[in-house]
Design goal:
The chain is mostly beta strands. It contains six helices and 19 strands.
Length: about 300
């Protein structure tokens, strides 16, 4: 596995926007006490991103956040937390959250990837589905089943400029609180995280749920497995360095919230690795040259990439 010396060649930059196009993105102030507002014709979102031991951009960004002192999150390595309100109703089975890529990664997957994916599906997220060998690879889960926390908030009507959306930078999303408790109770949705996620592993249960127009939904996603400090995915029995898993054209890891039926995109969060020889604006800069499916500054993936 590439060591800390190789990882130190890179710094992380986080951007987010309402679309796949990086030109629509804004820089995310990681770990800062501020909320980023994002909107399009489908949804309005207030976003906060926290990363433990953060050493990325911008210079001077806090290395951590008090979020990681919370009893529920003291082991977590990162958090994507947001409040969102939709402009059209969405069936619960249609809302997906996960990773996708613009270019093939099948030639870059390290040995042991298949076993690691099955382990994730078995122990962490049974609802995870996708195709890492496709021309445009993806790994999605139903949002209702994969989010670490889900809170149903109040009705706020149409959002203009984010003024009605609650800020989330100082918030730890707690499961099942707020004015929307009755919404969950009417559908028999459990109030505990593990029970709610298990409940929504059922497609039929997801189809009973509707994300209402104008209601605020709070979500938090993160875990203890992906360490952005050295770009390693740490699973029981497996350590896989993410440098060989990221998109070969933009060297980034993308999280997207989208509709499986309509294709509508609501939120995109982009974690981009910036090599120390690159322009410090990776959104508009050019990636390194690719040779044989790899960047000119990368080594060939091997069994040593998996512990």
């Amino acid at each position: 596995m590439p060591g800390s010396e190789k990882a130190s060649r890179y710094r992380l930059k986080v951007t987010a926007g309402p679309d796949y196009d990086p030109a629509t993105h804004q820089d995310v102030s990681v770990n800062e006490d501020q909320t980023l507002y994002i909107s399009n014709s489908h949804a309005s979102t207030n976003l906060a991103v926290r990363i433990q031991n953060y050493t990325g951009f911008p210079d001077g960004a806090p290395r951590t956040n008090t979020y990681f002192t919370h009893p529920s999150h003291h082991k977590d390595q990162y958090s994507i937390s947001f409040a969102i309100s939709f402009t059209k109703p969405i069936n619960g089975d249609d809302l997906l959250f996960g990773n996708d890529f613009d270019n093939p990664i099948r030639d870059r997957l390290p040995p042991g990837f298949g076993a690691a994916l099955r382990l994730v599906q078995w122990t962490i997220d049974p609802s995870l589905d996708g195709d890492a060998h496709a021309d445009k690879p993806y790994l999605y889960s139903p949002a209702l089943a994969t989010w670490n926390s889900l809170r149903v908030g109040r009705q706020i009507g149409r959002v203009e400029g984010g003024g009605k959306l609650p800020e989330v930078h100082g918030l730890v999303v707690e499961e099942g609180e707020d004015d929307g408790v009755c919404v969950r109770e009417e559908l028999g949705v459990p109030g505990e995280v593990a029970a709610r996620r298990s409940h929504f592993h059922s497609e039929d249960k997801r189809k009973e749920w509707e994300f209402e127009v104008g209601r605020v939904y709070f979500a938090d996603f993160g875990n203890q497995y992906l360490d952005f400090n050295d770009f390693t995915l740490r699973l029981p029995g497996f350590n896989i360095n993410a440098l060989h898993y990221i998109d070969e054209k933009t060297h980034s890891l993308r999280y997207v919230l989208k509709n499986r039926t309509t294709g509508d995109v609501y939120l995109v969060v982009l974690f981009t690795l910036v090599h120390d020889s690159e322009d410090q604006n990776p959104v508009s800069g050019q990636p390194g040259k690719v040779k044989g499916g790899r960047f000119d500054w990368e080594e060939e993936p091997s069994a040593a990439d998996v512990e």
